[in-house]
Amino acid sequence: MFLPSPWRADFPAIAALQRQHQTYLDNAATTQKPQALLDALSHYYSHGAANVHRAQHLPGALATQAFERTREKVAGWLNAASTDEIIFTHGATSALNLLAYGLEARFHPGDEIVISALEHHANLLPWQQLARRRNLKLVVLPINPEGVIDVEAALQLIGPRTRLVALSQLSNVLGSWQPLEPLLAHARAQGALSVIDGAQGVVHGRHDVQQLGCDFYVFSSHKLYGPDGVGVLYGRHQALNLLQHWQFGGEMVQLADYQEATFRPAPLGFEAGTPPIAGVIGLGASLDYLASLDPSAVDEHEATLHRLLLRGLNDREGVRVLGAPELALASFVIEDVHSADLAHLLTEQGIAVRAGHHCAMPLLKSLGLAGAVRVSLALYNDSDDLQRFFEALDKSLDLLR
Questions:
Q1: pTM of the complete model beyond 0.85
Q2: How far is CA 315 from the centre of its chain?
Q3: Which of 130, 359, 377, 379 is catalytic?
Q4: What local confidence, expressed as pLDDT, does residue 1 receive?
Q5: How far apart are CA 169 and CA 123, in angstroms?
Q6: What is the CATH T-level fold of the domain 8-25+295-400, as seen in this structure?
Q7: Under the phi-then-psi rule, with left for phi > 0, alpha for psi from -120 to 50, and beta for the rest, what region is 135?
Q8: Pick from 165, 209, 219, 216: which is nearest to 187 by CA?
């Protein structure tokens, strides 16, 4: 069965990669970019780049307008209550570090921070290091064999000493949606703040942060078909008021003297220095492009591709798929085959996949693995991409076995 992608031609890099005999299946790491984004970046740089929020001249005014329009688009994409709840950072990792430092003064020795066993390093290390700095307890929620947080155990571990719960929405290794609703509700009942790492989840469907009920939600532009170097931090208005400023300089200052200064509230108060202007404008163009697509058609296409991927992996002897991936990706290991060796042979055949610990080293260790191969899909992939992958996989296994 041939499953074409009606959006493939919108991404010029895909055609370029094909000419190089490359099949790109590493979309959970970063995505290729639509022509609409490339046009927006070209327009900004070729029609007069300027800094934002600090000049009265026309180029500065136009750049500021375009920059702030993206803030409106992001707020709409997430259904935030206000554009003031959207802060631009330099990535999801940057946003999570902003939170760890901005909330630090609220923690006291003996307080607890809760994460899960499947977190990406970006949603582990900032909290781990905060716990070390403030003598806190880092509590790790267990997962079940399907790669989902064990809700019953989690409800016992999130308690009156819990001050913050930080969880991934969708695992970048196991491809499983996490049961956020009961966990966030229980965290609220304990008076704890909640942080959702949406770096993988935001790519699939539209997520309503008000309905989620989280205090903070972070994601990276580059995984959402946007430019790299840009991240988004959504914060509920009352939660943003709890943050202390952590980077200083530029337009975040309100009044400054030699010995003291006052600072702006969110969002500008947390966008110190020159922001990634072109990238933010480019993210706006990517969101416009995504908003123009039929979401049900995209969901159906990605779901069908994912079923083909899982079927092909499960049909091959010795292949073990990790967890029970629901969409977008699958990580797997093969009996008596080293993941790095397999990835090397796939690379030689022009198949771009990811191998290693996927920035989730503790998770792989808990599974007794040094690494795994991950195939991850995007809306521009088609069934021919998977066919080339499986042909290369079979050739690789013939050599390795």
A1: yes
A2: 30
A3: 359
A4: 74
A5: 11
A6: Aspartate Aminotransferase, domain 1 (3.90.1150)
A7: left
A8: 165
Residues across the chain: 401
What proportion of the chain, given as a percentage, has pLDDT over 90?
A: 97
Place of tokens 């600090």: 54
What is the SS3 assignment for 168?
strand
CA distances in angstroms from 63 to 52, 71, 227, 265, 280, listed in the order given: 6, 13, 17, 22, 10
User: Is 214 noted as a catalytic residue in this protein?
Assistant: no
pLDDT tens digits, one per residue of 82-123: 999 999 999 999 999 999 999 999 999 999 999 999 999 999
d(CA 71, CA 355): 35
Asked if 386 and 312 count as a contact pair (C-beta separation under 8 A), the reply is yes
Give burial (CB, 10 Å; 0-12/13-18/19+) of 370: middle
Split at pLDDT 50, 70, 90, the class of 54 is confident
pLDDT for 284-299, tens place per residue? 999 999 999 999 999 9
Pick the CATH number of 38-291 from 3.40.50.300, 2.60.120.1060, 3.40.640.10, 1.10.1740.10: 3.40.640.10
Q: What is the pLDDT of residue 251?
A: 86
Q: Rounded to an integer, what distance in angstroms lies between the CA atom of residue 35 and that of residue 350?
A: 24
